[in-house]
Amino acid sequence: DLPCDNREGSLQGHRAGHAQTRLGQTHTRQLLQQAPSAYRTQANDLLLTALARVIARWTQQDDVLIQLEGHGREDLFEDIDLSRTLGWFTSVFPVKLSPKAGLPASIKTIKEQLRAIPDKGIGFGALRYLGDETAKQALSDLPEPQITFNYLGQFDGSFGEGENTSAFLIPAVESSGASQSAQAPLGNWLSINGQVYGGELRLDWSFSQEMYKEETIQRLAQEYAEELEALIAHCADKNTFGLTPSDVPLAGLSQPRLDALPILARDIEDIYPLSPMQQGMLFHTLYAQGGGDYINQMRVDVNGLDVERFRQAWQSVVDRHDVLRASFVTQFEQPLQVIRKQVEIPFVSLDWRTQPDLEASLDTWAEADRQQGFDLLNDPLLRLAVIRTGENSHHLIYTSHHILMDGWSGSQLLGEVLQVYAGQPGTRQPSRYRDYIDWLQKQDKASSEAFWKEQLKDLGEPTRLAQAIRQDKVDLGRGYGDHYQVLDQQQTQRLIDFARQQRVTVNTLVQAAWLLLLQRYTGQDSVTFGATVAGRPAELKGVEQQLGLFINTLPVIASPKPEQSVAQWLEQVQAQNLVLREHEYTPLYEIQRWAGFGGESLFDNILVFENYPISEALQQGAPYGLKFGAVASQEQTNYPLTLAVGLGDTLSVHYGYDREHFSTLTVQKISEHFGNLLQALAERPQQPLGELPLLSQEEREQIIHVWNRTEVSYPSEKCLHQLIEVQAEKAPDAVAVIFNDQELSYRQLNQRSNQLAHKLRELGVGPDVLVGIAVERSLEMVVGLLGILKAGGAYVPLDPEYPQDRLAYMIEDSVIQLLLS
């Protein structure tokens, strides 16, 4: 209970007394206009914080129980608008507030306690009086607050003031009379009703004069005014600011963690988790810092550019889109993106009209800009350099981190910049990337797990294209390489027509050919590669116009059968792509975990079918007087091989490859074989997949005839092991035997077989002695065979996979004297 001067006093209305709390216009204006911005509160939060602190000191309790009144017109249903409905909707509900020792902690704590009340308390009365018996009993057993607080808001805008008698409503000078019978009970021990009128906050404290002395309540009212003024002064200080969990609900951060953020709270607009693709890019960016992964750069010549106007257009677009103002925090278990309220885009303007060797200087600048990379916490993640190269010409270098947005968004961004540059009104307020993150968090993770486990069940091992290709280490190197493949217009049109006939997309045709190539190269029954999907959910309103990173990389897993026809194969790939769309939001790292290979990557190559022509966006969006040249773009992923497929008048494939895994010659050969399979698919729809040619006619001729010329003279009097000894002398370091990723040179093979032969001779092996060898296919099997021959014996091969009774019979029948295993 509250402290009381006379607990036996009556609560009848005719015993009511009143005390006043009043704030002057200056403090009231600060309360309403300045103070809320410090902790992102409403005026009611601050009023209740001050009240809770005063009452807690009075009662000497840590918690304060208060009954709040609300207007009750909450937005519970999208199709019901109560804003103009007449009636009594007032909601009444209890709330326990827990002020702390200091003002900042008190404001944050009470703000969060108020935000935690569902639907602003409207459900309490419904459950208390209309709920089931359990709910009614539980709520009726709660302690009842003895203080009621009701802040009615600002009334200055509703009535005429002073000489302003033209307002529709003007307060009457006459008394309205008693609002209820003098015999009716008071609403509570203490009832506080407040409103702003005439620019001043006025709060009326009503109480029973039989229960409280007037000076007791007047002292509380005065302490409340002093507490409010101290709170307002604290919040109005320019160095006061704070963030609480309810301000950034998607982040899932506690108050201590919010307070520990390395970015000032006053600079933060929002915080939310990363999308699956963003998480992957963040990991690889931090893991291989300085490697250039996911640093994108676009370069283009432009004529007729107004540089300052261009800078202002870019800044305007950055101000409009939250995702362009993102920084990335990695200090917690889950990385987060922090949206800053304001970011000034880095913009460099240079005049190089007299620069010697201009082209080389531009290349050097661009490469240095790429190599600079980005500080994901502190830097704006896009920057521009506009370099003047002539009287009316400039060279634009636009560098950004891929973690901000995908290619479709990049095209949208450039179009919007040009629209603003042209002075056209901007599009309607864009939806926010946080809406997509919110949508992601609501998806059914269990359903996705079941789907992907079914997809993964036939994949026996990851698909490693680089490991499947025999490459000399001297041909490998460092850095990133590019190879371009372009089909002519006739070939491209043939593919488009064929895809239309088969009722599949060209993307499906490309994927089908790539899967066949992977199977031919690796020899695996089931193969997979990474496909980049658009990832924009149709149910998210305005998603096509949003900027952000929506794409995701997912495994496309298939087991092409040699007997399948091309038509059947294309139908299968198309159907699989359609099914994947239902679960294309699933994080790749989760899929890798479900695959059962220790979480390792399932593939070392990805295929991207690009549908965001940057050059087209520039040309179509350019206002009169502005002309863009050819666009040069550079992108780099963390995968050893990335295929970027573009479709226009011609079909083009850009192979971006890591020189540590693929040689230039290897990538050229891959592109030739890929082209062969694409053309073969389009030419032979009814042919079995097993008969489609991977090799060109020239390659087949070379393998079948040139490389198959086995006629050669050799000393027929020498045995196999003797010939190998001769070769070991001629080329000791040449590779003699290869098994998987293991190999032996001729020197190593000769030395190891000699060691074995000496041991076998010690054991009695010599001419006419049979030695059994039961070893699986391996380097050791070759060493064993040669060792037996060098010892003078003869070997009897025994397959360990044979049944035991058959092996026993072979051993007995051959009368072997020794067994190697």
TrEMBL record:
The segment(s) forming the Condensation domain are 2-238, 269-703
In the record, what terms sit under GO molecular function?
Answer: catalytic activity
Domain (AMP-dependent synthetase/ligase) ranges: 725-820
Q: Which Pfam families match?
A: AMP-binding, Condensation
Source organism superkingdom: Bacteria
Q: Which residues cross the membrane?
A: none
Region listing for Disordered, in residue ranges: 1-23
PANTHER family the record matches = ENZYME, PUTATIVE (JCVI)-RELATED, PTHR45398
Q: What is this protein called?
A: Non-ribosomal peptide synthetase
Organism lineage reads as: Bacteria, Pseudomonadati, Pseudomonadota, Gammaproteobacteria, Pseudomonadales
